[in-house]
């Protein structure tokens, strides 16, 4: 059974304490009303997963755990079989006691693009919005963050995160909550807030930026990563029903327009620090995510376009500060 009680205890004192006015009731309602049909079986798989304490743990360069002595071939096979029950694995990769989870996304590549441009995370309180399986949360701890909170309403991602946590020695410095950003009160508490791969799924992108601002402490830093198009500050794509086969893609601005949006929402020192085309090496189908991926979402005769005829995915990273 996934227990949020330890998280409540950890935030009972400190800058997040007032979150307890609303959070336990939200989690209680979620447990009663909103559980996915597969959630019980995922929880059962979590119970079957052994608690492991790594002899060697690397969160700085990867998410890698190993043990001395190494697992036997039978133990490795059993661990692999349990982790396969949480497919599809989209964000990673993870290397856990000889089981290498080759995820759809090389999220480490995104991290390598982001990290050189942000303030050091050492001793920071961090929020990761739309965190997926929590891969980047572990990398944030690897950079010295003191405490990391991730939010993502997708329940499979919560179970993947809890599985990894169990294999990393039950690390309590990171927690994932099954919530969306719109469910958070204005906490005004985090030193750093990440929103990566979320903005284009929001019907009201400026509201999303205001919600992110409301989570930051004064002088806190926002790292925003999103789909963009080429163009000046007046360019924005509003796709039809699908973009690269994704539903619920509402606005894809240029990076320059996104900078204007951030300034409109009261952020300062806004910088466009990176822009990169998403390659079929960075997002692809694997043994751990066997359904269609980016290669199938691009025009087979012109990979500079999506299958719908829009510009192929281009992603920008912007860094900004709350005054």
Automatic annotation (TrEMBL):
<dbReference type="GO" id="GO:0002098">
    <property type="term" value="P:tRNA wobble uridine modification"/>
</dbReference>
<keyword id="KW-0808">Transferase</keyword>
<feature type="binding site">
    <location>
        <position position="200"/>
    </location>
    <ligand>
        <name>carboxy-S-adenosyl-L-methionine</name>
    </ligand>
</feature>
<dbReference type="GO" id="GO:0032259">
    <property type="term" value="P:methylation"/>
</dbReference>
<feature type="binding site">
    <location>
        <position position="105"/>
    </location>
    <ligand>
        <name>carboxy-S-adenosyl-L-methionine</name>
    </ligand>
</feature>
<feature type="binding site">
    <location>
        <position position="196"/>
    </location>
    <ligand>
        <name>carboxy-S-adenosyl-L-methionine</name>
    </ligand>
</feature>
<feature type="binding site">
    <location>
        <position position="315"/>
    </location>
    <ligand>
        <name>carboxy-S-adenosyl-L-methionine</name>
    </ligand>
</feature>
<feature type="binding site">
    <location>
        <position position="91"/>
    </location>
    <ligand>
        <name>carboxy-S-adenosyl-L-methionine</name>
    </ligand>
</feature>
<protein>
    <recommendedName>
        <fullName>tRNA U34 carboxymethyltransferase</fullName>
        <ecNumber>2.5.1.-</ecNumber>
    </recommendedName>
</protein>
<feature type="binding site">
    <location>
        <begin position="152"/>
        <end position="154"/>
    </location>
    <ligand>
        <name>carboxy-S-adenosyl-L-methionine</name>
    </ligand>
</feature>
<dbReference type="GO" id="GO:0016765">
    <property type="term" value="F:transferase activity, transferring alkyl or aryl (other than methyl) groups"/>
</dbReference>
<dbReference type="InterPro" id="IPR027555">
    <property type="entry name" value="Mo5U34_MeTrfas-like"/>
</dbReference>
<keyword id="KW-0489">Methyltransferase</keyword>
<dbReference type="InterPro" id="IPR029063">
    <property type="entry name" value="SAM-dependent_MTases_sf"/>
</dbReference>
<keyword id="KW-0819">tRNA processing</keyword>
<feature type="binding site">
    <location>
        <begin position="181"/>
        <end position="182"/>
    </location>
    <ligand>
        <name>carboxy-S-adenosyl-L-methionine</name>
    </ligand>
</feature>
<comment type="subunit">
    <text>Homotetramer.</text>
</comment>
<comment type="function">
    <text>Catalyzes carboxymethyl transfer from carboxy-S-adenosyl-L-methionine (Cx-SAM) to 5-hydroxyuridine (ho5U) to form 5-carboxymethoxyuridine (cmo5U) at position 34 in tRNAs.</text>
</comment>
<dbReference type="Pfam" id="PF08003">
    <property type="entry name" value="Methyltransf_9"/>
</dbReference>
<feature type="binding site">
    <location>
        <position position="130"/>
    </location>
    <ligand>
        <name>carboxy-S-adenosyl-L-methionine</name>
    </ligand>
</feature>
<dbReference type="GO" id="GO:0008168">
    <property type="term" value="F:methyltransferase activity"/>
</dbReference>
<dbReference type="InterPro" id="IPR010017">
    <property type="entry name" value="CmoB"/>
</dbReference>
<feature type="binding site">
    <location>
        <position position="110"/>
    </location>
    <ligand>
        <name>carboxy-S-adenosyl-L-methionine</name>
    </ligand>
</feature>
<comment type="similarity">
    <text>Belongs to the class I-like SAM-binding methyltransferase superfamily. CmoB family.</text>
</comment>
């Amino acid at each position: 059974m996934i227990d949020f009680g330890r998280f409540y205890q950890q935030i009972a004192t400190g800058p997040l304490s007032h979150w307890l006015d609303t959070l336990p009731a939200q989690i209680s309602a979620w447990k009663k009303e909103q559980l996915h049909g597969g959630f019980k079986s995922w929880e059962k798989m979590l119970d079957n997963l052994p608690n492991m304490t790594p002899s060697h743990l690397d969160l700085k360069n990867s998410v890698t755990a190993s043990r001395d002595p190494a697992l036997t071939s039978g133990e490795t096979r059993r661990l692999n079989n349990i982790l396969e029950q949480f497919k599809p694995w989209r964000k990673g990769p993870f290397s856990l006691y000889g089981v290498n989870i080759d995820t759809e996304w090389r999220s480490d590549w995104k991290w390598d693009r982001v990290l050189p441009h942000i303030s050091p995370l050492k001793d920071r309180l961090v929020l990761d919005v739309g965190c997926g399986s929590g891969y980047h949360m572990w990398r944030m701890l690897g950079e010295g963050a003191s405490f990391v909170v991730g939010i993502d309403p997708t329940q499979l991602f919560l179970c993947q995160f809890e599985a990894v946590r169990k294999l990393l020695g039950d690390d309590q410095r990171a927690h994932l909550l099954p919530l969306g950003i719109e469910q958070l009160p204005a906490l005004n508490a985090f030193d750093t807030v990440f929103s990566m791969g979320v903005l284009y799924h929001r019907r009201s992108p400026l509201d999303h930026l205001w919600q992110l601002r409301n989570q930051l402490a004064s002088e806190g830093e926002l790292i925003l990563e999103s789909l963009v198009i080429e163009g000046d500050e007046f360019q924005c794509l509003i796709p039809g029903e699908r973009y690269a086969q994704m539903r619920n893609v509402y606005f894809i601005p240029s990076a320059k327009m996104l900078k204007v949006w951030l300034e409109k929402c009261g952020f300062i020192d806004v910088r466009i620090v990176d822009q990169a085309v998403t390659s079929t090496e960075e997002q692809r189908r694997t043994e751990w995510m066997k359904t269609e991926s980016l290669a199938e979402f691009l025009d087979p005769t012109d990979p500079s376009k999506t299958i719908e005829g829009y510009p192929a995915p281009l992603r920008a990273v912007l860094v900004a500060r709350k005054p």
